[in-house]
Design goal:
The protein has 61 residues and is α+β, with helices and mostly antiparallel strands. It has two helices and four strands; from the N terminus they run βαββαβ. The strands form two sheets. It has a two-stranded antiparallel sheet with strand order 1-4. A two-stranded antiparallel ribbon has the order 2-3. 16% of the residues are buried.
Length: 61
């Protein structure tokens, strides 16, 4: 299972939430949060589209 790390500087723009094809992320209190990690397919689209480069997706073993 992948790991998704979202750094504290997230400004809640929502780009990652909008682009995730599996709806793994959501906005909560103005920040992106992981809500359905089990559905993540580690495509790293959220990492690619984050304008602040604050998301890291690491594939699990």
């Amino acid at each position: 299972m992948p790991t998704i790390k979202i750094e504290a500087g997230c400004d809640g723009c929502g780009t990652c939430v909008e682009q995730c094809p599996m709806e793994v992320l959501a906005l909560n209190n103005g920040k992106a949060v992981v809500v359905k990690l089990d559905d993540c397919m580690a495509c790293k689209l959220c990492e690619t589209v984050c304008p602040c480069s604050l998301i890291r997706v690491e594939e699990g073993a």
